[in-house]
């Protein structure tokens, strides 16, 4: 694997056959996550494909010329022509392999894939999920010198990393950007010594054997497991939602509100997250129309009063969306009046859905005791019904889900595990 500069781009990339080029930056957690995957795959595919890296911050002109806007960004070339998909952000090993395989014959692909040997790694504790609960557990465990690994299908931070502002986390006088709060948590845990295997595909989880298979070839074993997989946004499951996800329908204001400057936006929901995110969207959008199924918002009164006093905002109470339709650059929201049953259409530039969350437990839910809403039941030590399997954070059955309650869960589980292992 070789590092190049702009002056070498033409000779090393455009005139060099089959190439994969990684634009990376320093102080970039996603770059750190992709680096070992890139290096490992260079050992497998290096005889057929040239693996190159380029430091984006020192080669900005080239990056801008190529339309590279974030780090890392992986580009794939075949005789000077870019092929496959550009990969950015939390790049998974499987995504890289999929693009590399486009550059070689079926026979070589089979030969290379046959050389991928299963490996096994061992730890004292596996933490499934890198949100505040998992990161806190990792911090306490590594400070207790317990060999711990955090495994996450995304990058560390959880939902906090996509929260625009956190104003109630103790110790900070001023509101903190969510991505910075989660970044600092992650860096603290990483520097302490916790291992990270992030942006991976989790192939299988065996809670009884305490084994997790990632990327289809690595088996990670431990004495104990902490489930910290958190929650993900509920879907409406109406026509057009899946088709236009990321193409006009969004679930993250922090990620996408910036694309709607002076635009008309629809927000669906009326709870705390919907109201708080709608307030954030008003910093960009020209108008925000909220659609809520009840006759009043259910968010806390302070947040409601702030939002409803904003002249950009109007609310359609006792209405529900029935379909999303794309018309050119516009999103059409078909809504039903729940009182009269009449239907109408709202034309907007984008739609944001905030109708609550669901627990991320699909891969192992059948073996665990759940409450009526699909969250994991634990005892006072955060232990589930399976011995040596714990759960922390938003995935746990409890009355309140906050960053601080997740951090508390992680603390309790880590201390309980430390006492047992010692």
List the helices and strands and how they pair.
Elements: E1 2-4, H1 9-14, E2 18-24, H2 29-45, E3 50-55, H3 60-66, E4 73-78, E5 81-88, H4 93-100, H5 106-114, E6 119-122, E7 125-128, H6 132-143, E8 148-152, H7 178-192, E9 195-198, E10 202-206, E11 211-214, E12 218-221, E13 224-227, E14 231-233, E15 249-250, H8 253-256, E16 264-268, H9 272-281, E17 287-292, H10 301-308, E18 313-317, E19 319-327, E20 330-337, E21 343-348, E22 350-353, E23 357-359, E24 389-391, H11 403-421
Parallel strand pairs: 1-3, 2-3, 6-12, 7-8, 7-13, 8-9, 13-24, 15-22, 16-17, 16-22, 17-18
Antiparallel strand pairs: 2-4, 4-5, 10-11, 11-12, 14-23, 19-20, 20-21
Helix pairs in contact: 2-4, 6-7, 6-11, 9-10
Based on CA inertia axes, which overall geometry fits?
Answer: globular
Proportion in helices: 25-40%
Average pLDDT for all residues: 94
Reported CATH architecture of the largest domain: 3-Layer(bba) Sandwich
SS-based structural class?
Answer: alpha/beta
How far from one another are the termini?
A: 43 Å
What is the top-level CATH class of the largest domain?
A: Alpha Beta
Counting DSSP H or I runs of 4 or more residues, the number of helices is 11
What share of residues are in beta strands?
A: 25-35%
Strand order of the largest sheet: 1-3-2-4-5
Radius of gyration, whole Å: 24 Å
CATH superfamily of the largest domain: FAD/NAD(P)-binding domain
User: Which spans have pLDDT < 50 for at least 5 consecutive residues?
Assistant: none
CATH topology name of the largest domain:
FAD/NAD(P)-binding domain
Find the count of extended strands (DSSP E, 2+ residues).
24
Main beta-sheet strand count, sense and barrel state: 5 strands, mixed
Number of domains: 3
């Amino acid at each position: 694997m070789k590092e190049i500069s702009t002056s070498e781009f033409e000779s090393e990339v455009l005139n060099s056959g089959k190439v994969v080029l990684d634009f990376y930056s320093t102080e970039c957690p996603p770059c750190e996550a992709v680096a070992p995957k890139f290096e490992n795959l260079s050992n497998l595919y290096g005889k057929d494909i040239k693996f190159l890296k380029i430091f984006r911050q020192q080669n900005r002109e080239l990056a801008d010329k190529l339309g590279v806007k974030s780090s890392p960004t992986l580009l794939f070339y075949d005789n000077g022509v870019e092929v496959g998909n550009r990969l950015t952000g939390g790049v998974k090993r499987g995504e890289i392999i999929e693009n590399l395989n486009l550059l070689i014959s079926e026979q070589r692909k089979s030969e290379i894939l046959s050389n991928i040997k299963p490996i096994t790694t061992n730890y004292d504790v596996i933490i499934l999920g890198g949100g505040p609960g998992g990161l806190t557990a990792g911090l306490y465990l590594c400070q207790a010198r317990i060999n711990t690994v955090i495994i996450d299908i995304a990058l560390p931070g959880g939902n906090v990393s996509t929260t625009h502002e956190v104003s109630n986390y103790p110790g900070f006088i001023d509101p903190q950007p969510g991505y910075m709060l989660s970044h600092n948590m992650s860096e603290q845990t990483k520097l302490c010594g916790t291992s990270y295997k992030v942006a991976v595909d989790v192939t299988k989880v065996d809670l009884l054997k305490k084994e997790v298979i990632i990327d289809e070839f690595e088996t990670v074993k431990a004495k104990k497991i902490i489930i910290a997989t958190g929650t993900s946004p509920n879907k409406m499951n109406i026509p057009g939602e899946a088709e236009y996800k990321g193409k006009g329908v969004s679930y993250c204001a922090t990620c996408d509100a910036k694309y709607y400057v002076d635009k008309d936006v629809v927000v669906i929901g009326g709870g705390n997250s919907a109201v708080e995110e709608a307030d954030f969207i008003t910093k960009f959008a020209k108008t925000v129309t909220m659609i809520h199924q009840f006759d009043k918002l259910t968010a806390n009164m302070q947040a409601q009063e702030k939002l409803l006093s904003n002249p950009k905002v109007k609310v359609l109470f006792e209405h529900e969306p029935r379909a999303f339709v794309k018309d050119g650059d516009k999103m059409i929201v078909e809504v039903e009046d729940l009182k009269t049953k009449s239907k109408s259409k709202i034309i907007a530039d984008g739609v944001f859905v905030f109708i609550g969350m669901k627990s991320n437990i699909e891969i192992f839910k059948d073996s665990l005791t759940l409450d009526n809403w699909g969250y994991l039941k634990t005892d006072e030590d955060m232990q589930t019904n399976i011995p040596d399997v714990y759960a922390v954070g938003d995935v746990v059955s409890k009355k309140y889900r906050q960053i601080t309650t997740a951090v508390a869960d992680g603390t309790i589980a880590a201390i309980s595990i430390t006492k047992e292992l010692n």
